[in-house]
Amino acid sequence: MRIALAQFTAESTRQDSVEKAFGMMEQAAQDGADVICFPEMAFDVFFPQFRADRQYFALAEPIPGPLVEQFQAKARALGLVTVINLFERAAPGEYYDCSPVIDADGRLLGKSRMMHIAELPRYNEKYYYWEGNTGYPVSLTRAGRIGIAICYDRHYPEHVRALALQGAQVMLVPTATSLPELGAIWELEMQAAAVANQMFIGVANRIGREGDLTFFGSSFAVNPKGEVIGRASNDREEILCVDCDLRLIEEMRQRLPFLRDRRPETYGMLCEGKSLSR
Question: Which domains are delineated in the chain?
Answer without folding.
Answer: 2-271 (3.60.110.10)
